[in-house]
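Let us practice reading a record.
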Amino acid sequence: MPFVACVVKNGRILSVMHNSARANMDTTAHAEVQAIRGASRELNTLELSGCVLYSTCEPCSMCFTACLWAKLGRIVYACRIEDAEKAGIWQIPISPHRMKRLGHSSVQLVGDVLREEGLKLFEFWSRGQTRPRT
């Protein structure tokens, strides 16, 4: 899967993970959840306030909820849920912007960062390639 996420605090990378749901037979092993788990272990805390999550795609509803519970300060993502769907990756079409409103969250959402590069990842994945050819 073309999903990768990392958590950063004060310029320090705490955790970088990829989606490993199929490899681990764990439906919750999305990149964002894995990155949150890693950052929490690194800082020895459940609360990641002041941290930023960077992701190749807009978080799904499960991942966004994990971000809220972890109290992340900002989420920066490349592609949109619609982009994942166009690549053949089923998503629940609830945007994190809507969930933010419903959850009365103060998390900052910054989208479309390096979106074109992210779209290439989805394209390569949908063609069965593991990485772009240079």
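A brief commentary: The mean pLDDT is 88.
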